[in-house]
Design a protein that fits this description.
Elements lengths: L3 E7 L7 E6 L8 E9 L2 H8 L9 E2 L4 E8 L11 E4 L9 H4 L14 E2 L2 E2 L6 E4 L5 E3 L5 H4 L5 H10 L10 E5 L5 H11 L3 E6 L2 H10 L3 E4 L4 H8 L5 E6 L4 H9 L1 E9 L19 E3 L6 H12 L7 E4 L4 H9 L6 E4 L2
Parallel strand pairs: 7-8, 11-12, 11-14, 12-13, 14-15, 15-16, 17-18
Antiparallel strand pairs: 1-2, 1-4, 3-5, 3-9, 3-18, 5-6, 6-10
Helix pairs in contact: 4-5, 4-9
């Protein structure tokens, strides 16, 4: 297919991307081209945008959270039907190291040498985009591909964080969700679907807490100076077996450490830039801290499967190309409920 298309491109470090016209890409050997259905806006995009020097070679098309319809395939690609809807696993690995052959491309041993989707190679915020290998595609079936777009980053990240800590969440245990935003609102649903834990959600906005209640949270709290004491009271003083921090600033990390149970696990998912001092006796006994990144291919399949079963549903705000800059500003200010998704 010849011609041009729209793409949201980061052209210069530290400056917001721009919508530009670029040639429609052609799939090479082993590659697949998709017509974009939806591409989610992620808070980590802002780290990429404002990084100076840049994290990746520029110019770069943004959008690591994308879905679309098969539009063309390169030589050697078989088994795909034009027009079928797929989601994209974004954490591309080398495909041959010990981690990758197990499907854990998020921890590829050659990650620094393997550019990923919108993390070194052009992403999905374009009318058409290229996927390097069919193994990075997950079929969506009857799911609306726009509604499914947040699963490609927010969904897989939440599924990964919950699944790798699920052994801690036995009946009677507590999971604490800090921040009910694009990831947090999915976390409440994934916890409800996969674990027997009592779920506490905390946020600074009442509307997000109302959403958490609707999605299945057992208790919701408005963040404030007494939050740690309130959480301790709700857990009979034991604390939470799992704390998922989707904010990651100094205040939330302090709250997380102060409400973690003995032997509990803190998963730092948010990219708020906070610091958590750790030394002997500053954390509960046998507690651990994790920094989950994306997830495995199986985590993505689980997230999509939960959505297909109706157990998980993304709260989507649809925006167009002209609204991207303003929507990123709202995202940065914490004003987006759910997940904003670019729809062409």
């Amino acid at each position: 297919m010849s011609g041009t298309m729209r793409a949201y491109r980061l052209l210069k470090a530290g400056r917001m991307p721009e919508v530009v016209e670029v040639p429609i890409p052609e799939p090479g050997p082993g590659q697949v081209r998709l017509r974009m259905a939806g591409a989610g806006l992620c808070h980590s995009d802002l780290l990429v945008i404002h990084a100076d020097p840049p994290f990746f070679p520029l110019p770069l098309t943004m959008g690591h959270e994308a879905t679309g319809w098969i539009d063309a395939v390169g030589p050697g690609v078989e088994g795909l039907t034009l027009g079928d809807a797929y989601g994209v696993y974004f954490s591309w690995g080398c495909g041959s190291c010990r981690a990758c052959v197990k499907g854990a491309e998020n921890v590829c041993e050659r990650a620094g040498l393997t550019p990923g989707f919108a993390t070194g190679r052009d992403g999905g915020m374009a009318d058409y985009f290229i996927v390097d290998d069919p193994r990075h595609l997950v079929p969506l079936g009857s799911l609306d591909p726009v509604e499914a777009a947040p699963l490609m980053c927010a969904g897989i990240t939440v599924a990964h964080a919950v699944r790798r800590t699920a052994a801690l969440l036995e009946p009677g245990s507590v999971a604490l969700v800090i921040g009910v935003g694009g990831l947090g609102h999915l976390a409440v649903q994934v916890l409800k679907a996969l674990t027997p834990a009592t779920i506490i959600a905390i946020d600074r906005l009442p509307a997000k807490l109302a959403q958490a209640t609707d999605l299945g949270a057992d208790h919701v709290l408005l963040s404030g100076s007494d939050s740690a004491a309130e959480i301790r009271a709700l857990t009979d003083g034991r604390g939470a077996a799992l704390v998922l921090d989707f904010v990651g600033n100094d205040a939330t990390l302090g709250l997380a450490a102060g409400t973690l149970a003995q032997g509990g696990r803190l998963e730092i998912v948010g990219v708020g830039g906070g610091m958590l001092p750790i030394r002997f006796h500053t954390m509960p006994r046998d507690a651990s801290v994790g920094t989950p990144y994306a997830g495995t291919l199986d985590d993505l399949r689980v997230a999509v499967g939960l959505a297909q079963d109706g157990a998980v549903q993304s709260d989507v705000l649809r925006v167009g190309y002209a609204e991207l800059a303003a929507t990123y500003a709202r995202l940065d200010a914490g004003e987006i409920k759910g997940r904003a998704v670019l729809v062409p």
